[in-house]
Amino acid sequence: MIDDTHWNTLLAEVTTEANTYDSLTPPLVQTSTFTFPSAESGARRFTGEEEGYVYTRLSNPTIRLFETAVAKLEGAEDGLAFGSGMGAISAVLMNLLKNGDHLLCANGLYGSTFGLLDMLNERFDISHTLSPLASAQEIEAAITPSTKAIYLETPVNPTLSLVDIELVAKTAHKHGLPLIVDNTFMSPYLQRPLLHGADVVVHSATKYLGGHGDVIAGVAVGSRELMQSIRMTTLKDIGAILGPFEAWLLLRGMRTLALRMNQQVQSAQTLAHYLLAHPAVDKVYYPGLYAKDKAIMDKQMRAPGAMISFELKGGIEAGRQLMNRLQRIKRAVSLGDIHTLIQHPATMTHLLVPREDRLKMGLADGLVRLSVGIEDVVDLQSDLAAALRSDL
Ligand SMILES: Cc1ncc(COP(=O)(O)O)c(C=O)c1O
Fold this sequence. Notes:
Mean pLDDT: 95
Bound molecules: pyridoxal-5'-phosphate
Number of helices: 15
Distance between the termini: 49 Å
Number of strands: 12
CATH architecture of the largest domain: 3-Layer(aba) Sandwich
CATH superfamily of the largest domain: Type I PLP-dependent aspartate aminotransferase-like (Major domain)
């Protein structure tokens, strides 16, 4: 059990341990392969009888340190690093599912995860159903004899509504199904799904874990047995591995995870309330703003996070103008960065999606997504105030 009160100490420890050189920071072992002291030793490393590294696609000391650090933070037995969040998600799903199987999913998922599910369906006959997963009856009604796992993100993009991890995990386990949770929006500092019954947690480590906008990476954590199985199949043989330098950068970023998140959450709370009262804003989506999510939030989240979605009354044109008027807040996709990032799906990420389909995904014309960074909140608020003139 992780001591919930000393996160800065914990982060400093888990990101530097296993250090054989007594250096303050973890060693960067930037090598593709490892030498064997003898032919016999090499043979024993291949059979697993002897501890030691063989080849960086299989494992590497710096990457291993990142994997075990995230596993400890999430309360898991083991972890696996990948070259991107999508690398982690695809490796986990392709390990657990085979043709003819079915995956039950929460109905708000990251766009490329949808893309992956469509590809698995079209090319490999692995089907899926989307459901709000809001009650045991609803979940049970969506489970079929072919269902092999349940997959969710919470908070759900873009409305940031919440899914009750414990409820879904209990129902999944009643049917012998593993639950996979994408914890990217929260980070282990704000939410640890395994403690609420989930079996696997995946992250785009590109976001809060790295935190500095300089790495694309993914990680999955879960039981030792499952991680070993993924390592030897969809990680080793598909090969979406992380590089040692990226693992080192992630370890550096993670040391300040709690400090960053505290500041980001505090600023996000201030900005969510500011936006809620603004005459140009129609709706604000932020966990905890409305009573309906309070019980789930209190149960599984330390704080509401630093992602805010809001809808401008003026639709597409208002969104475009807001983007162009901002001076400090950066127009960019991605999230979880120390810089505050903003994007307008209707004119950016979802420009090519037919309007009708985009609206079905909950992405209204004037919807804007803000990932709050560590800048001073007065500067962020004045940037928004100047850009959100009454004509929006
Ligand atoms: C919730 C979520 N999951 C997964 C991903 C994919 O991560 P990556 O871009 O590192 O492949 C993203 C990327 O934005 C995301 O927001």
